[in-house]
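Example for tutorial group B:
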């Protein structure tokens, strides 16, 4: 799938994430013993090199047997194409505190386009946390406070960009936001000094 590789056998799993546009020879394989680590949090690749080598060899044998070598075809164009989701030409969304998960099919599509996210928030000294976050298997973004700064984290098809405000957000009622201009690939977080300021 998208050039990634993986195989399971007798409670063991080996996987290799494939960044788009990179040689397969540089992929790093990970190894998990699912019988003891169901959530795949403990990568055993460096501690069990013989087991990893056997699993990778098995992957090649299965790929050859089933004629299913990973193609690595470019998929960025699929992610970046202008989508026409079910919400049509809608250009403005308002989300309120406490909302649950919004499915990707009806969420704002921020891929390959300019956008502005603003959040009204009360900031105290030491405030940290997520203002908004959304994502799926191929794309994700988040706008959050960390260490007193506003941070925007965007990952589209392996292109990962993180920007951080150059100044600390002062306490009080604030309108916090990020404006992304996709055509110039410029990502610039902006901080307003109050709910009515631009």
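The residue assignment follows.
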């Amino acid at each position: 799938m998208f050039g990634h590789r993986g195989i399971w056998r007798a409670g063991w799993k080996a996987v290799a994430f494939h960044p788009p546009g990179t040689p397969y020879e540089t992929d790093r394989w990970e190894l998990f013993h699912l019988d003891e680590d169901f959530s795949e949090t403990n990568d055993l690749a460096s501690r069990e090199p013989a087991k990893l080598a056997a699993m990778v060899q098995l992957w090649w044998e299965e790929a050859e047997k089933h004629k299913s070598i990973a193609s690595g075809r470019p998929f960025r164009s699929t992610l970046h194409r202008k989508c026409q989701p079910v919400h049509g030409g809608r250009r403005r969304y308002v989300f309120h505190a406490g909302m649950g998960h919004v499915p990707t099919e009806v969420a704002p599509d921020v891929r390959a386009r300019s956008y502005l996210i603003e959040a009204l928030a009360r900031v105290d000294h030491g405030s940290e946390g997520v203002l908004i976050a959304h994502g799926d298997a191929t794309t994700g973004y988040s706008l959050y406070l960390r260490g007193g700064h506003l941070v925007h984290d965007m990952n589209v098809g392996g292109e990962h960009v993180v920007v951080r405000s150059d100044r600390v957000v002062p306490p009080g009622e604030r309108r916090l936001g990020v404006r992304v201009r996709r055509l110039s690939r410029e990502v610039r977080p902006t901080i307003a000094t109050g709910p009515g300021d631009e």
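DSSP finds two helices and ten strands in the chain. Compare this with the pattern of hydrophobic and polar residues in the output above.
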